[in-house]
Amino acid sequence: MKILMVLTSHDKLGDTGKKTGFWLEEFAAPYYVFKDAGAQITIASPKGGQPPLDPSSDTKDAQTPATDRFKDDADAQKALAQTEVLSGIDAADFDAVFYPGGHGPLWDLANDADSIRLIETVTAAGTPLGAVCHAPGIFKNTRIDGKPLVTGKTVTGFTNTEEEAVGLTDVVPFLVEDMLKANGGHYEKGPDWGSFVVTDGKLVTGQNPASSEEAAKKLLALV
């Protein structure tokens, strides 16, 4: 079983002068779900190499058993530091694709031609696809049969109220919840900060960092 994980290469939090990137828990928890299931994991990003870690996801209160495990795992750290360049990835090589979040994807992956092509290709092929928290932002410009990819699909992602709680409503280029609705998705959500995951066909979306492990397990169930 081969699984592709796609991470952001974007590290600037709008015009704030602060850093962003991918969210550690949203990478670490799914990574170990896949690894412990015996999957062969490939990690890619638009620029390749070491993807930027959102500093907010590396604070003491943001740590989980999965992030603790990652910090003691030299092999996983090495794999993360050597992500493949997304443009060189062949979608046909993988049994499933998973996008961790963090705010970074809203700036690069949402508009990245290689990511858009990958998503549209795996969707057309019926390959299971997962995205958690801000990563459903990757569906902003993806289309199937001329319509937004999420049109008519039940989806979730980081809520407007969660974005407001972290004080970034006016910083992000768009709100995930609003975009999914505008693209015709049937948007659902659970309580803020609780695990909430929905599956529609071969598409799995999770609401927030707490949803990352469950989203990965539901993706595995589709492989």
What is the structure about, briefly put?
The chain has seven helices and eleven strands.
Q: Could you characterize the architecture of this molecule?
A:
With 223 residues, the protein is α/β, with parallel strands linked by helices. The protein contains 7 helices and 11 strands. It has a 7-stranded mixed β-sheet, with helices on both faces. Strands 6-7 form a two-stranded antiparallel sheet. β10 (197-200) and β11 form a beta hairpin. α1 (24-36) crosses α2. The protein is globular. The N and C termini lie close together (8 Å). 49% of the residues are buried.
Pick out its properties.
two-stranded antiparallel sheet, alpha/beta, seven-stranded mixed beta sheet, 223 residues, single chain
Average pLDDT, all residues: 98
Q: How many distinct helices?
A: 7
Tell me the distance between the termini.
8 Å
Structural class given helices, strands, pairing? alpha/beta
Largest sheet, if any? 7 strands, mixed
* Binned strand content: 15-25%
Identify the overall geometry. Answer: globular
- The run of helices and strands is EHEHHEEHEEEEHHEEEH
Determine Rg (CA atoms, Å): 16 Å
